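Posted in: Structural Biology > Protein-Ligand Complexes

Title: Requesting predicted complex, iron/sulfur cluster in pocket

I'd be grateful if someone could produce the 3D structure tokens for the following input. Sequence and ligand are given below.
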Amino acid sequence: MIAEKCHHDFRRSLGRPNLKSEYVKEISAICGMCPHGCWVRAHVIEGELVAVSADPDPRFGNLCERGRLAPKIVYSPDRIRIPLVRSGPKGKIHFREATWDEALDRIAEQFMDIRNRYGAHALASYMGAGTLEDGLSAFFKKVLEPFGSPNDIDCGSVCYVSSRILAPLTTLGIEGDALTPDFENTGSIILWGTNPLKDGIPDKVKRIREARRKGASLICVDPRRNGLAHNADLWVPLLPGTDGALALALINIVIQRKWFDRRFVDRWTLGFDELASYAATFTPEKAGEICGVDPALILRLASALSPDSRAAMDFYSGLEYAPSGVQNTRALFSLAALSGNLDVEGGLYIHAYPHALFREYEYNPAIPPLGALEFPLFYALAGRAHISGLPDAVLHDDPYPVRGLLLVGGSPYLSYPDPERWKQVYDQLNFMAVIDRFIPEEAAWADIILPATTYYEIESYHLYRDHVRMRSKVIEPVGEARNDSMVLSAIARRLGCGSSFPGSEEEIVDHAFADRRQLLRIMKAGPGVARLPLAERRTRKYESGHLRSDGKPGFPTPSGKFEFASVLLERYGYDALPVYTDPRASTVNHDSMLMLTTGARTRGRFNSQYLDRQELALNREPVLEINPIDAEIRGIKNGDRVSLRTDLGEIVLEARVTTGICHGTVHAPFGGGSRRHHGLWRKAHVNSVIPSHMRDPISGYPVVKAVVCNVSKVDTDADLCDGVSPCVEYAEDSVNSTTER
Ligand code: SF4
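-- Reply #1 --
Done. Output follows.
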């Protein structure tokens, strides 16, 4: 009876109450909307995905709003279904349909031509968050390298590398992905600049909730009280970009109160005395002033780090976009180690080991990869070109000309500061090809646009920390869309580099499991899921020699120690200690100003993917969050239109007055500014007011989360869209895209 009612509700939700349930096929699948790999049940009628529900699996079963809306996204009228070739002037979306062969041949022809005229380095590729599917990112990240170009760029230029590679490698010699906060065995969970509810692997949220049920307290350190912070035991609202000062104050407290293990410090760390004397200047009072946090709250936070408690710290991208983003993250690793919470039960546990000393990537000095001269450590540790170098190469031939761009599943125009400059870059290119699911803003300058599949339309695999699951195709590709991997493989074949990449979906899986054939056989024969063997659980592995691949005790760093003072940073000319830089340092008078943080993650989008999808718009208008105290001073009420200004310009948003953001701070969403947007969204490109020259000197990341700004109420009812109906303009462009063949 209950089952029948469920079926009835389900049929009604499809708008087809009389549909016989036997027509609905329920397929166990991995969600195809983002790379987080939630397990779902896909409901399919006659080969069409009609609905998605969460899989009942207690650990991996999950469904967010983006996942639930999959049918709308997959079959959106804006989906690119057929290869398109430019048929009108640059700057307009004027295309005609083409065959795959014609489009791919043209790309190869143009790339060959550019290589012949300027050299292979005149070609660059950019892979955005849309390419993070496991099979694709494992084998196709450097698609131009076999063709001779060092300029394969990816979204690591703006996410992940700072906090997961640069900061941990320069501190303990281990990448962040090998570290797991041991929520299950801790007394306090400290979420710092991360919101697992909105962005992250869903089983992390379940683990946190389970740990809380067993008694762990939850502390959230963030300018915004969002997600899990709503029910936290302690919310520490700090001003954006000041995390390093707070971390140093906590280090100071741990040292002053002798909460650290002297034997650990003497035997296993480098630079303790220097760190102690630097951190001594960050008293709770001084840090309170810098961070806008009551010193008493800092002391409460510190008590979670006392020797009689255990703290599992989790920190991520919230810290990356500050003037000292890498160093701020290093300060947190240092805090974890100093307070006795590194590689212990209930602390920040190193789950994957052993580790060789990290590799430093080298390049041909005659042709440096883009950005490698300006951000040398980024290249040395990440082994990738940096997007910061692309505009100058295209616009000023500096350090050499770049003339061709392959853009895959990403939008620098939406994701990076200074969108007007990006338009100039696209305008200046000789040739640009785009592979995506939807037409990005860049398409107005593209020469070829190729339709990519969602993950529901491909075969692949998904790796979890301790599991692997085959990704089975749920539906046939929409229109003529193809798996991005196979498109890249086809381009590589035409460029004479086909042997460098898997040529079919089956080959991708075979390559991925080349050294685990037995596992692959088991998965293929069974339900498609297998457990991965985990390294034996051991704590304090630096003592026993299990952390380093040479079997020696210590850390896999140049000194063999946990480096409060980093040998590598010093060698590359940076501060060896986790030195804090204040985001307001260059502002003369900031008394009446606010700190702007931007781009908090939402469940509606995945990084820059789906940013302009109307189906996923969580707010009708772009919302500026502002604290009631700051709003009252400025006479701003909920729903008012407000102007957000920086040295670079102004955008208009709708005010949301909320106690969920700390006093002195405002938050604006990113992702506006596309021709597909409506109303205020259309001009609210927050990256247009972010200075592009403000960057973390180590990672090169733009300072998008700590910008001095001014906010005031907009009194006029002026037409903020210049009287243009974005729907009409886009519709006209689209008509052009399909009438010529
Ligand atoms: S987070 Fe949402 S969109 Fe991503 S895999 Fe999970 S359900 Fe799908």
